[in-house]
Design a protein that fits this description.
CATH class of the largest domain: Alpha Beta
Structural class: alpha+beta
Number of strands: 14
CATH architecture of the largest domain: 2-Layer Sandwich
Mean pLDDT: 81
Helix content: 10-25%
Order of helices and strands: HEEEEHHEHEHEEEEEEEE
CATH superfamily of the largest domain: Major capsid protein gp5
Radius of gyration: 23 Å
CATH topology of the largest domain: Major capsid protein gp5 fold
Number of domains: 2
């Protein structure tokens, strides 16, 4: 006879913050995004970010001639709050007879699924060309032969123009199939060579030009005619270029169907994602080095 103990069940008030922590810990793109909770408890489902346009350079002046003021303008950037979530159901039979702990795995699985969704949404926002705006995209339709310093990375750095500053770049985010190109590059410094006590981001596998390099297979892939022709998008993201605004962070709920003897576990979140700086993200298209 099986006896259900407290340890076998979710205590919602306790598990909710744990699920949020697990979801954030599993996400990669959240590390390069500006996270904001000011929308929590506020009405409405759309948030607007003011984007100030640059003015012209200063001009030469003549003695006694007044300066002609320039107009400071903004472009409105709006993002819509959306709800995302997933759920898993576990029958009593599965809980009592399966190897391992299905309920515990269900809790972990829904947290991981939410983290993956956040990563995908942030990457889509980073690469979006909707509404007439676009990030900097290099590599052309065919992409660079590989993600290397001599061609792809130096081209990305040059794309920032006079705004290039390695201290203001959050990370270079690559696909695992692009990793091989860096491993063969003498300019790449593996995290295995980092000294003790050095801070390392989630998923970081090294650094290039002093910039953290993170692997995420949520990277966009464009299928080619053959496998080597597949194109992968790496991202060079400047700090403050991506925004993740929560209306409500992860909410975990448990429901019991006593007639079907099924326990359901669900996780939901409300948030908006937005690219805040078109010139702060470079999309680097490359072929797989494998």
């Amino acid at each position: 006879m099986a006896t259900t103990m407290k340890a076998d069940l979710i205590v919602p008030d306790v598990y909710a913050p744990v699920a949020v922590k697990e979801a954030v810990a599993a996400a990669v793109m959240t590390q390069v995004a500006v996270t904001d909770d000011t929308l929590v408890g506020q009405p409405g489902d759309t948030v607007t970010f003011p984007k100030f346009n640059r003015i012209n350079p200063a001009s030469d002046l003549s003695e006694g001639v007044p300066i002609v003021p320039q107009k400071l303008t903004t472009d409105d950037m709006t993002a819509t709050i959306k709800e995302v979530g997933t759920a898993v159901e576990v029958t009593d039979t599965a809980e009592l007879t399966a190897l391992g702990n299905p309920s515990s795995r269900a809790r972990a699985a829904i947290s991981e699924a939410l983290a993956e969704k956040i990563d995908i949404d942030l990457r889509n926002a980073a690469e979006s060309t909707a509404g007439g705006s676009s990030p900097i995209i290099i590599g052309g339709a065919g992409g660079f032969a590989s993600l290397d310093w001599d061609n792809a990375v130096t081209s990305a750095i040059a794309s920032f123009g006079d705004k290039w500053d390695p201290s203001k770049v959050a990370a270079i985010i690559i696909h695992s199939r692009q990793h091989v190109g860096l491993l063969r590059d003498d300019n790449f410094k593996s995290s295995l060579t980092f000294g003790s006590g050095q801070a390392i981001l989630r998923g970081q596998i090294g650094a290039l030009a002093g910039i953290p390099v993170i692997v995420s297979d949520a990277a966009t892939k464009t299928d080619g005619a053959t496998d080597p022709d597949d194109i992968y998008n790496a991202l060079v993201v400047r700090k403050g270029a991506l925004g993740l605004l929560y209306k409500r962070r992860a909410l975990v709920e448990q429901d019991r169907d006593i007639y079907s003897r099924i326990t359901g576990f669900a996780i939901t979140a409300h948030y908006a994602v937005k690219r805040l700086d078109d010139k702060g993200i470079v999309v680097v298209k490359t072929k797989a080095a494998i």
